[in-house]
Design a protein that fits this description.
It contains 8 helices and 4 strands; from the N terminus they run E-E-H-E-E-H-H-H-H-H-H-H. It is α+β, with helices and mostly antiparallel strands.
Length: about 250
Amino acid sequence: GGPRPLPGQEVSVKVLGALEDGGPVERDPRLIFVPGHGDVVQALELGVPTMQPGEVSFFLAGFPYAYGRPGSREPDVPPEAPLLFEVTLLEVRDCPDPQPLPPAVRLRLGSQRRERGNFHFARGDFAAALRSYRLSLRALDGPATAPPGPEEEEELQEQRVKCLNNCAAAELKLGRAEEALAACEAALRISPDNGRALLRRGQLLAEQGRDADAALALRRALELDPASKVIHAELSRLAKRQKPPSNT
C-alpha cells in the first residue's frame, strides 16, 4: 500500500525481535528512524526500505546484521546471536524538520538513539556513535505536541547532559578537541555541577595551556567528588607545571 521509502525519508515501524529459541529481546510499538543514518541494526537498515506501508515482514538476521560478534547488554543479546525480526511499516514521511512528538516519545526516542550510539562507541565506530548521539539530541530538543511535565522536563535535561558528554567522548576519539570542549560547555550550561563534564573540560583546557581556567573546573569537580584519584592527578600535574623552577 504505497511507495517504498526513499533515501532520506523517515520511517515509523513496529518491531518485535526474538532469539532463535523465541526469547524476546526487543519490542517497540513505534520505532522512528531514517534508513542509512546508522540508528538501528543493519537488518532494519537494509530490510525496511524494501517494504511498503502496511506491510508486515520477517527478517532473519545473522549476527553481523544484528548486534555483532560481541552481542549486547541492552537489549540483552548473547554473542554471535542471530535474531528474528517481525516488522510492520507504519508510515513513511519526508524528514526536513523534526516531527512534533509527545514528551514521553521524545524521551524514549532519545534514549534509544543514545543507546545505539553507545553500541557503536563500544565497537570503536566513533563517527557512527557521534551521529547517533546527535540524532538523540535532535529528538530530545525537537518540537513537542504538549509541554513536558516537571518530571519529564527533568529527565529530558538529564538525557541531554548524558548525550553531550557522550558527544564529547566521541569527538575526542576522533581527534577533535575543540568540538569536545564545546560539547562539555553545552552540558555545563544545562547542569553546571556535572562532574564528568567539569573533569573533561578541565583536562581539555589544561591541554590548551589555559591553566587557570582548567584549575577552576577541576577544583569544582573535586568538591563534588573528593575521592577521585583522576581529579587529584590532574590538579597535581597542573601544580607541577605552575611551580617556578628551583634556583639550585
